[in-house]
Amino acid sequence: MNLVELLQIASSEEKAEGFLRERGVLKTFDSCPFCHAKNIGKIRRNFYKCYKCKKEWSVRKDSILEDLKIPFSKFILAVKLFILEVPAHKSHKELDLAYNTTHKIYTKLRQCIYKFVSKDDQLLSGEVEIDESYFGGKRKGSRGRGAKNKIPVFGILERNGKVKVEIVKDVSAETLLRETIKKVKRGSLIYTDKFKSYDGLVMYGFKHERIDKSVKFANGKVYINGIEGFWSYVKERLLKFHGVSKDNFIYYLKELEFRYNFMDNIDDSLYKCLGGIN
Ligand SMILES: [Zn+2]
């Protein structure tokens, strides 16, 4: 959905509500959400009532909009600006909203994405590249003294498929093998660099090829440029956020995993997250 089409929808609250309902973002109740009685009805704009238990609920019940006091039209515009990577400190002006409100919307979007991405337990397979990288901290370097105070992240990329990333407590063989077993189908062909922690892959039923990057970056099909491309993608974007706190880092990381995997269909994919549809 391009911006012009979206502006049409955002031109009326009714259209915007319909748009959100079609995508499952607003829930449609055919019975009372409290007592399940069928005898319910609309009592005033945006409110429903159960005639059995007498309880009332808003059209926003059980949705991401439940505690957002903004019009539906502004919400869908905010989602679009989020998709277009306009940071909250800029988009709030475009939306004529307080920064805090926009920040709250963005945080909720990231939480939805995190939930959606975490539910995906499909194993990666075929030809797979794995690698670790470090984020945060001031010193350059990795895998040594430079890695101190940085967050180690483990990444797995299926060639022509998805990428999956996880924050890990360390980059020991034990940790990285455990993550690999959790996310990659046995029998897959795994490409790594020469890092020692990957020594045991064959013992766990994987095929394993490694590239010595101190000699050359690729040897035929033996390379890890795919996952390294993803690290550059993430680092470039994190720079825009001028430092993400350690506690929030996982949400930004998962957002970027999601954006990378659904690049070609980001609008629909994000609405799937918001509608809780997997
Ligand atoms: Zn009821």
From TrEMBL:
Residue span(s) of domain ISXO2-like transposase? 123-261
The residues the entry assigns to the signal sequence are none
InterPro entries for the chain: IS1016-like_transposase (IPR053164), Tnp_ISXO2-like (IPR024445)
Entries under Pfam families matching the protein: DDE_Tnp_IS1595
> Entry's SMART domains?
DDE_Tnp_IS1595
Protein name (record): Transposase
Q: Which organism is it from?
A: Sulfurihydrogenibium yellowstonense SS-5
